[in-house]
Amino acid sequence: MKSPVYHATARARRWDYSASQVAGLERLIERIDFGSAVAKDELVAIKTHFGSEGAHRVVRPRFLRVLADAVKAAGGKPFICDTVRINGWDYLEIANQNGINPQSVGCPVLLADGLLGNDSVEVKAGQVLGSVQIASVIHDVPAMIVVSHCKGHIESGYGGAIKNLAMGGAAGRHRSGDWKKARGHLHAAAGQSSVKRDHALCTMCLQCLHVCPTQAISETGGNLVVDDKKCWRCGRCERVCPEGAIRLEKRTKDEFQAGLAEGAMAVLSTFAAGKILYFNFLLEVQPECDCMPMADTPLVQDQGILASRDIVAIDQATLDLVNRALPLPDSLASDRGLKPGARSLADALGVDGQEHVDAAAALGLGMKAYDLETV
What are the boundaries of each domain within the chain? Predict the structure, then answer.
């Protein structure tokens, strides 16, 4: 048995609206039997990523509007949401800068874990995480549309539907100030994990200071100081340091990939069967997460949009399409010297997202076997 995955190609070969990507999304909505997941007057979360200052390759408001309108047509009450990644007020302003606001999407836009990122409910996870603090709004609503901009990620190798739920469904912080009770729990190792800095290697380029979303790093007397209480353990400072002078005591790669699957499982456990639909946007597939303060050129040409009711199948189909696509010139793929036949995403980043897709399948979240139907 295979899970159905529906595909609206990015190619437009006719001078006609029906050939547009927007019309393709409308066909996906019809083909997936959208209305069966939404009851009359039901609150429906449309979970996406708002982006970051300098990162503009998020799912466009036009597409979010189509999905919100489809929820309304089915009798539901939609809202667009994400969880806090920087201070909440600033994050909503970034969403607005990227065109995501009530006027553009036709419904409310809110933060699922509250303006300060500490509104959450603890949910049991697996052996790696133990438990996860799920954003209270996502925990409480009866239905959800998961809208994922598919791209690379320095730790997971791939960011799609599973990562969207695992990382994006968790609260940004916790009222107690304990990072182990928020999203940092997925990134950092257990115990008293902290950011370590090698003074001998540090050149004071200040990239870590500028990329920190919580202003946990400051310059004092010509030295860099990390405020452990402010730190969310996101690991961005380590990512941008050109000298390897700063690092987060984080999980091993295998543990992190398994933790992503467990985080997604925790979110899914709060919904009844059939109440979540997945839409993966294989457009502008850049090598970095949308939370970074920049957007590199895409690794491969746009592959279109996928829709499914199976979170594992849709991420497996996404990986297959992207990894089989030709590497684009003037991209990280060409920097790495990738040739046709290479796995464009995995080989460019050196991390294989297949690992957390496999882990999600092993947890029973869905099937890797799928039938791909073009609509």
Answer: 3-177+252-374, 194-248
Is 2.40.160.40 the CATH number for 194-248?
no
HSE-up of residue 298 (Cα within 13 Å, Cβ side): 18
Q: With contact defined as beta carbons under 8 Å apart, do 256 and 155 qualify? A: yes
* Cα(347)–Cα(335) distance, integer angstroms: 11
Name residue 300's beta-bridge partners.
327
3-state helix, strand, coil in the chain (%, to 5): 35, 20, 45
183 vs 186: CA distance, rounded Å: 6
- Alpha-helical regions (H) of 74-195: 88-97, 102-105, 136-140, 161-166, 184-187
pLDDT tens-digit readout, 10-67 = 999 999 999 999 999 999 999 999 989 999 999 999 999 999 888 899 999 999 999 9
Contacts of 252 (CB under 8 A, 6+ apart): none
Place of tokens 């594992």: 312
Q: In whole angstroms, what separates CA 33 from the centre of its chain?
A: 24
Burial class (CB in 10 A: 0-12, 13-18, 19+), 33: exposed
H or E element at residue 359: helix 354-362
DSSP for 62-96 reads HHHHHHHHHHHHTT-EEEEEE--SS-HHHHHHHHH
d(CA 137, CA 78): 12
Residue type, 358: D
Q: How many residues would you count in the chain? A: 375
Q: pTM of this prediction?
A: 0.91
User: Angle formed by the axes of helices 354-362 and 253-268, to 10°?
Assistant: 50
